[in-house]
Amino acid sequence: MAQPRILHAPADVGGHAYGLSRGERALGFESDVAVLTAGPYGYGADVRLDLTDLPTWQVIRRRAGFARHALARYDVIHLNFGHPIVALRRGPFVLSELPALKRAGKTVIVTFQGCDVRPQAACACTSPVCAAQNANRLPNARHMLRHADRVYHLNPDLRRWLPGSRFLPYASVDVRAIVPSPPPARDELVVAHGPTNREVKGTEHVIAAVDALRGEGVAVRLDLVEGVTRDEALARFGAADVIVDQLRIGWYGGLAVEGMALGRPVMAAIREADPADNPFGAALPIVRSGAERLRDDLRALLADDERRERVGAQGRAFVERHHDPRTIARSLLDDLGYRSAP
């Protein structure tokens, strides 16, 4: 089978699409990323159609034009963040370019990442934007499931709303480009936390836990990493002793992958009531914690230099094995029958 031309569109949340695309390129495939609206964190893209502030009719026209370009140019269309390039929705009905792509013999892949399908009632977010999108999520998911060749989810809980979908690890971090080094020596330990959404990440509990430990006399401070570019965030995470990821979703995010790649111990709440909640099982080196017990868990980790070093090394080995974009790209494309170079 000839190697396909691959397009990732229409969004790149967390850098997953770009990382996977670069992994595909490293395997010898032609792979591009197109985003309809540029994100705030500086993730790469090959095509940027900035549709911000355009009137609705222009947005629809440009989306439709790009969908026609994708139909003519690419063989595999990988739709990230659970959205088509063009979508018209009314109640339970969804119209998109997917049926046309299938009639043209294209391979269609869809990856869901979180609030593109998770109902607001199952999430800690109370954003009015989230509320406005809520009614469209499950009809959109059913449409995608009906027309796509493969559907993936990056967070295990999403399988509840995506029957038949498959788990896919984050491909957002090029672990080979990150060289871990020990945190700098200083008089106090640093806990880093990077909330893209404070409510969802449980940031108030991280702040409270560090404040409480400081009140006990523990030499620790919090580095709250937000509103900065990815490069600056990586530098600050690399200067931390411990990284706290998210405390409410029940899984870890792309930040945790970056932290583990840097050789830092990462803490997060991991749901494990069912084996499918954690596809990696005991091999996952995240330090389990939660909002109610974070202070105690953090105190214990900060007091144990050897444990922090050991967990950090385990995390680095874990991302090398499970989160290398080349490995994920190879597995995904092999599954579709497109054999990559060895």
List keywords for this structure.
about 350 residues; alpha/beta; Rossmann fold; 7-stranded parallel β-sheet; 5-stranded parallel β-sheet; 11 helices; 14 strands; about 35% helix
Question: How would you summarize the topology of this molecule?
Answer:
Blueprint: E1 5-9, H1 16-26, E2 30-35, E3 47-48, H2 56-73, E4 76-80, E5 87-90, E6 93-96, H3 98-103, E7 107-112, H4 128-147, E8 150-153, E9 166-167, E10 189-193, H5 198-201, H6 203-215, E11 220-224, H7 230-238, E12 242-244, H8 254-261, E13 266-268, E14 287-288, H9 294-302, H10 305-322, H11 325-335
Parallel strand pairs: 1-2, 1-4, 2-3, 4-7, 7-8, 8-9, 10-11, 10-12, 12-13, 13-14
Antiparallel strand pairs: 5-6
Helix pairs in contact: 1-11, 6-9, 8-10
User: Regions with pLDDT < 50 over 5+ consecutive residues?
Assistant: none
- Return the average pLDDT rounded to an integer: 94
- CATH class designation of the largest domain: Alpha Beta
Rg over alpha carbons:
21 Å
Can you say what the CATH homologous superfamily of the largest domain is? Glycogen Phosphorylase B
Run of helices and strands? EHEEHEEEHEHEEEHHEHEHEEHHH
Strand order within the widest sheet?
Answer: 3-2-1-4-7-8-9
Shape: globular
Distance between the termini: 16 Å
